[in-house]
Amino acid sequence: MAEPAETAYITTPIYYVNDRPHIGHAYTTTLCDIWARSMRAGGRDVFFLTGTDEHGVKVEKSARARGITPLELANENAAEFRKVMDLFELTYDDFIRTTEARHVSQVQTAVRRLLESGDVYLGEFEGWYDEGQEEYHTETKAKELGYASPISGQPLVRATQTNYFFRLSAYQERLERLFGERPDFVRPEARRNEVLGRLRDGLQDVPITRTNFEWGIPFPGDEEHVIYVWIDALMNYATAVGMCEEPDGDRSRYWPADFHVIGKEILWFHAVIWPAVLMALGLPQPGCIYAHSFWISEGQKMSKSLGNFIDLEQLQGYMSTYGTDALRYFMATQGPQGATDSDFSRAQFHETYTTDLVNTVGNCASRTSAMVDKYLGGTCPARSGEGAVGALDWSDFTSGQVREHLDAMDRFELGRAIEAAMRIIRRVDTYINETQPFKLARDPEESGQVAGILYDCLEAIRIASCLLESTMPARIAELRAAWNLGAASGDLEAECGWGRLEPGTVISKVALFPRLELEEQA
Ligand code: ME8
User: What is the pLDDT of residue 522?
Assistant: First the structure.
């Protein structure tokens, strides 16, 4: 019997339903989508999870303000998020909603286990209470606020609240050990250092229930309390694959996740609280918490007050002018995957589109296929090896780039992975300029040489296209169709072996990325 395929599990944050979807949500989900597609192309059994975070006081308040129930609000906005994911053709395997029964019951099971193990206990929280906002502040925060409500200006009052607490303090050492043993547990490194710095300040137990509102999962056995939205939300990564069911669901084979991909603002919850909860539950740790940075918009932070979010309408504008693949490519190569923020500017988008997609990928494929059409009647020539010029060993060069790409993808370094593919395309361009098949073609004696050169070009572009497919699935599908390359085989590495392109294959001319003027953008 064949070995079962190696599993791969990747998650996005689950998005709050009290906001409208924007570039940030599309960005994180697209990064995960590229990785998921790439792992599938490599034959792995992939589970790609996204969804919505639907509980909490904010949802309750927004719903009340609109005169609808929190669930009605959640239904409406969860549908909106799903619409965005489908519009972008994001290939998630499941979309979890925290109001679903499967999630609620497993969160309660998990919390019950934590109560039994003593990791959750009933305690008192003393703090500074903002009566208008129904919110507690710690001493440090209250001092910062001048002991007055930032909203009403009324003085904060000293008050105690009875809550259930998670014994986070008990996990200090184990977390330090985890970070020490697994330097890649939190990436990029700047984010890891941030967490380590805060960890050194020492950990305090955290309240994990609330009694001042109702829109949450009831605490098992004490329905006065609802489970704090962050604990509820983090658990989605486990409940979606049935980790808190008894017995574990079929999907438990995916556990633990290879990557929890998040934005940097929610790092503490994912890098410290979540691993500690998993330790308390006796569940294995994820491979990596990957916290990317932020998109800013035309040089400014995106914020509600500035109203400058790159929203769904704007994204649709880009997609209808440039195509979804161009947006994916831009996000993956120019986005804030590292430790610094990136600016989403129209001019930069247009520039990247023109330089990388029109002038490089598109031009190289169209120039090659046009020559094959003109000099070889639109058929792939024999693998003669006659095209080899100078010291370039194509097989060696492409296999080096393929290895680099696969290694980078495995590590979720999308920019580096895409760059390896682009290097192949740029090398083809240089090769055409060096060998000048369009000049050689004037001399019938050189026809073997021309054919050899064009085989190399076609084959190198084919290999690069296999590597680019996870980033630009629609345009590469067009190329596959025009060059009769067939469907992906499920073994990306083998597919990228040099010489797999069959002589005699009919090659049609392609124009993958039309040249556009910046003004054309609505
Ligand atoms: O935080 N640039 O949900 P959320 C890049 N429900 N990415 C951005 C971004 C920006 N400017 N703004 C947002 C929540 N994001 C919780 C998560 S998970 C258990 C619970 C992305 O709707 C980024 O991935 O506020 C960020 O972490 C996420 O959206 C926050 O989404």
Answer: 46
In a domain, 510, yes or no: yes
The structure tokens 């929280």 sit at 125
The CA 247 to ligand 1 mean position distance, Å, reads: 32
Q: DSSP code of 5? A: P
Q: What is the pLDDT of residue 521?
A: 47
* CB of 294 shorter than 6 A to ligand 1: yes
Give pLDDT tens digits for 91-125.
Answer: 999 999 999 999 999 999 999 999 999 999 999 98
Residue 197 lies in a domain: no
Which residues make Cβ contacts (< 8 Å) with residue 294, sequence separation at least 6?
A: 24, 263, 264, 265, 301, 302, 336, 341, 342
**CB of 166 closer than 6 A to ligand 1?**
no
For residue 485, the domain's CATH number is 1.10.730.10
| Confidence class for position 386, pLDDT limits 50, 70, 90 | low
**Residue 192 included in any domain:** no
- Kindly report, residue by residue over 192-221, the tens digit of the pLDDT: 999 999 999 999 999 999 888 899 999 999
Which range of residues forms the domain containing residue 360?
344-521
Indicate the pTM of the whole model. Answer: 0.95
Q: 299-322: string of b/e by CB count within 10 Å (b at 16+)?
A: eeebeeeeebbbebebbeebbebb
Testing ligand 1's pocket by substitution, the residue of 28, 84, 85 carrying the most ligand atoms inside 8 A of its CB is 28
Residue with CA closest to ligand 1 atom 18: 13
Residue 504 lies in a domain: yes
